[in-house]
Structure formats: structure tokens, C-alpha cells
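Sequence only, no structure available. Ideas?
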Amino acid sequence: MKKDNTSMLVGGLGLLVTGVGAALFRGKAKAGVVGFGLAHVILGGLDMVRQKISRS
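Reply:
I predicted one. C-alpha cells follow.
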């Protein structure tokens, strides 16, 4: 069975976007970019949990 790494990719890119947004932006732009990144981290984690539940 081929392993699907999509959820890890989504979560990792979310961490990258969050870090870059926190370091480079200010004000409302910072809040928007960090929120966008954190949403992807959460969605990647939820996708990992969903895959484990559906395989059981």
C-alpha cells in the first residue's frame, strides 16, 4: 500500500507560512498570514486523524 504524505505536506507548509508571516509582517497582514498558516496546520492534522480512522 502506498503511503499518502499529503496531510504532512499541508501541515508542514502551514508551519512554514506561519513562521514567515510572524517574522515578516505587521498588523492585520501578520494576523491574516499567521491565521492562514495555522488553519493549514490544523487541517493537515485533522486529515492525518481521518486517514487513521478510515483505515481501521
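The helical segments are 6-24, 27-55.
Hope that gets you unstuck.
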